[in-house]
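> forwarded from #structure-qc
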């Protein structure tokens, strides 16, 4: 893993350049990125699994959410 990549992984805030460098990772840098992502995930949300669901009472909606299949 190169030193620049290692320094970026230690940060809490990232510039566009940092993010570009991270998503283009390969080899040992990619493995380090996945490892760090796992550490951050465990620190933020723990090892809990949360289920969320949506109950639709009708197929008519007044919202226009892009992710939804029943948007107006």
């Amino acid at each position: 893993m190169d030193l620049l990549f290692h320094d970026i992984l230690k940060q809490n805030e990232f510039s566009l350049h940092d993010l570009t460098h991270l998503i283009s990772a390969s080899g040992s840098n990619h493995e380090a990125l996945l490892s760090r992502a796992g550490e951050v995930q465990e620190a933020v949300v723990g090892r809990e699994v949360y289920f969320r669901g949506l109950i639709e009472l009708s197929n008519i909606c007044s919202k226009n959410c892009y992710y939804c299949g029943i948007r107006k």
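QC bot note: Residues 59 and 70 are 6 Å apart (CA to CA). The mean pLDDT is 87.
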